[in-house]
Amino acid sequence: MTQPIIFCDFDGPIVDVSDRYYATYRQGLQLVEQQGLARAQPIAVRPISKAQFWTFKQNRIPDRQIAHWSGLEGHQIDDFLAQVNHIVNHPSLLRHDQVQAQAREALAMFQQCGVRLVLVTLRCPDQVRGFLSQNNLDGGVSELFGMPRTDAAYTNQAHHKVERLQTAVVAQQRQGYSVKNAWMIGDTEADIMAGQTLGLETVALTCGIRSRNYLQGFRPTCLMPDLWAAAQRLQRQVTLRLR
Ligand SMILES: [Mg+2]
Fold it and tell me: What share of the chain is helix, strand, coil (3-state, %, to 5)?
């Protein structure tokens, strides 16, 4: 039997970035508020709640619109967006990243099933390795393909994801692995589009930064709540094949 290969995104399936993105939003607002005070032009900032913020992010409400609904206007919004891009990868904010619920159990299950797990992410590899080793998750990952730039993950552009996944697929084939029946697991349209471009089965997870409704429009092979559900599905497939 050939070894099952799973290509998997990092932010969303494995990491819950919602606290970091919300903390970044709050800090960005605070910095713009302080700039206003320094110019003797006070701004009436109205931060939205974490739940509201995340619902907006999951439904792809642009950051510009979120800033406007938080009390900013005109150049204040540009200042806010520049701050957010500047600080989102700062170590003090990266500390807010957490292991996604049951992702640890899912990685253990993949390992039990003999899966070759290949991470394909727009994060830079050092950040990914740091997070995995701090959380004792590195044992479950066979190979990692990241981006050298630190700002690529936040902008999440689909063409970057396609390019990274293609590199990862070619590297597996060169090492003699078959990617026939391989999955691409992720939480955004970029992951689904990359998987589809390379002819892989696509598993879209709804525990990340996009809503179920939104993801459905990209027609992934299947939609699942989280990585644990995907691991259970894989285990059933492996068990059936062994019978
Ligand atoms: Mg993601």
Answer: 55, 10, 35
Phi, psi (deg, nearest 5) at residue 137: -110, 0
Residues 182 and 162 sit within 8 Å (Cβ to Cβ):
no
Span 44-98, pLDDT tens digits: 999 999 999 999 999 999 999 999 999 999 999 999 999 999 999 899 999 999 9
Whether residue 12 contacts residue 100, with contact meaning beta carbons closer than 8 Å, is answered with yes
Q: Is 106 helix (H, G, I), strand (E, B) or coil?
A: helix
Distances (CA, A) of 170 to 44, 178, 198, 201: 52, 10, 10, 16
* 108-138: burial string, b at 16+ Cβ within 10 Å, e else: ebbeebebbbbbbbbbbeebbbebbeeeebe
Distance 189 CA to ligand 1 centre (A): 9
Which residues are near ligand 1, the ion (C-beta closer than 5 Å)?
A: 9, 11-12, 187
| The overall pTM is greater than 0.85 | yes
**Tens digit of each residue's pLDDT (9 = 90 or more) over 188-198:** 999 999 999 99
The alpha carbon of 200 and the centre of ligand 1 are apart by a number of angstroms equal to 17
Task: In the chain, count H helices and then E strands.
Answer: 12, 8
From the CA of 14, how far away is ligand 1's center (Å)? 9
Q: Choose among 123, 110, 177: nearest CA to 150.
A: 123
Please write the tens of the pLDDT for every residue from 111-149. Answer: 999 999 999 999 999 999 999 999 999 999 999 999 987
SS3 136: coil
